[in-house]
Amino acid sequence: MACLFCRIINRELPAGIVYEDDEVLAFEDTAPQAPTHLLVIPKRHIATLNDLEAGDQALMGRLPLVAARLAKERDLAEDGYRVVMNCNDDGGQTVYHIHMHLMGGRRFTWPAG
Questions:
Q1: Any long-range contacts for 7-16 (C-beta under 8 Å, 24+ apart)?
Q2: What local confidence, expressed as pLDDT, does residue 69 receive?
Q3: What confidence score (pLDDT) does residue 113 get?
Q4: Of 16, 51, 105, 111, which residue is least crowded by CB atoms under 10 Å?
């Protein structure tokens, strides 16, 4: 079975896409944990943070830049927002295609989880 996020990238599954460029896609999370909950993903399949290689630095640097841009567009930047990346089962990763959660629109507490 193909990766869920790869199927979204390939337009095999519908998604509320809010941003796209040649390397990155962002879309609405289907189970939002905040009023704004977006997923920012590379279009190239990388399963986990553990699978990153030195050549992935530029691509991975784009994810927080896109998240910050989207946060500003949604008026989250001034009050604040949270970005999260999970890795493997104990880290809470459920889709094995690296992704960044952008959440905002409410106050978050710490510690997380």
A1: 9/41, 9/43
A2: 98
A3: 66
A4: 111
> Catalytic residue among 37, 45, 99, 101, which?
99
CATH code, domain with 79: 3.30.428.10
pLDDT at 2: 85
Q: Is residue 13 part of a domain?
A: yes
> Does 99 participate in catalysis according to the annotation?
yes
Tokens describing residue 92: 């809470």
49's tokens: 């943070």
Note the pLDDT of residue 19.
98
| The pairing of beta strand 24-28 with beta strand 36-42 | antiparallel
Strands 17-20 and 24-28: antiparallel
The residue segments making up the domain with residue 19 are 4-104
Q: Which residues of the chain have pLDDT under 70?
A: 1, 113
Asked whether residue 71 is domain-assigned, the answer is yes
CA-based angle 46:27:42, to the nearest 5?
20
Q: pTM for the complete prediction?
A: 0.95
CA neighbor of 97 nearest in space, from 45, 20, 27, 40: 45
